[in-house]
Amino acid sequence: MTEAVHRVHAVAVQDGVVIAEAGDTGLLTFMRSSSKPLQAIPLARARADLDERDLAIASASHLGDDAQLAAVRTLLAKAPATEEELECGPVGRPPSRLKHNCSGKHAGMLALCRAKGWRSEGYRLEGHRVQREMLAVHAEASQVPEDEIRTGIDGCGVLTFGLPLERMANAFARLPEFEGAEKVAAGMRAHPDLIRGPIASDTRLMKALPGWIAKGGAEGLLCAAGSGIGFALKAEDGNRRGLGPSSAVFFS
């Protein structure tokens, strides 16, 4: 008996050319948390005082373990900012903004505001300088004009960006070309357990493939890059269960 089918679309891009594909490579979907390495680039450019752990937690969808929460607190202290300024909303019992799995990204956005001298209130909203900066870096990396990138509101309240899978893979493949991106990648490679956790596809992929980076997103998305190649995989039903086996097959 078949209980579930997880159809996964996948594409690999190198030097702007598709070198492997399965399913619909032009599938348009939101990047969700797979955007986080891109969203950390403006932070890396603006803050020379941040170390690899800071940039890793800014790129993370953490599970709230002690090491991850300590990294968020450190980034907030360097911003400087307080937990109350995080606009990701409280979760858990007792409720805490710090425990939200996007709190590292939000702490990074507050640190960016401090570096640029921007007001921090409403940093998650579409018209804020922070989100305009995020749109610009997605356009630059994906090579899609800003006015052609679809936007929506992610679960943590910030903008999320809609791109075809092939353009996501292209963006990840091109990361080494951009100022600040290598610092972000170095942080992710040095601290894969901060990015998600020991059983997550992105953390496991980075541990299995030294030199690579990977970042999962909600609704069954996984993006990765290494050796000049960018990958994007999307489970059509939004379930991440198929991503690990699919990536193992696709990467082989």
Taken as a percent bin, the fraction of beta residues is: 15-25%
**Within the largest sheet, what's the order of strands?**
2-1-8-7-6
Compute the number of helices. Answer: 11
Helix content: 25-40%
* Series of H and E elements: EEEHHHHHHEEHHHHEEEH
Q: Please give the number of β-strands.
A: 8
Query: Biggest β-sheet, characterized?
Result: 5 strands, antiparallel
Q: Shape, please?
A: globular
Roughly how many Å is the radius of gyration? 17 Å
Unreliable parts: none
First-last Cα distance: 29 Å
Give the helix/strand class. Answer: alpha+beta
Mean pLDDT equals 96
Walk me through the topology.
Blueprint lengths: L7 E7 L2 E6 L5 E3 L5 H4 L1 H6 L5 H7 L7 H13 L24 H14 L12 H14 L7 E4 L5 E6 H9 L7 H10 L1 H4 L5 H8 L4 E5 L3 E6 L2 E7 L7 H9 L1
Helix pairs in contact: 3-4, 3-5, 3-8, 4-5, 6-7
Describe this protein's structure.
With 252 residues, this protein is an alpha+beta fold. It has helices at 36-39, 41-46, 52-58, 66-78, 103-116, 129-142, 165-173, 181-190, 192-195, 201-208, 243-251; strands spanning 8-14, 17-22, 28-30, 150-153, 159-164, 213-217, 221-226, 229-235. 39% of the residues lie in helices and 17% in strands. Strand 6 (213-217) and strand 7 (221-226) form a beta hairpin. The radius of gyration is 17 Å and the shape is globular. The mean pLDDT is 96.
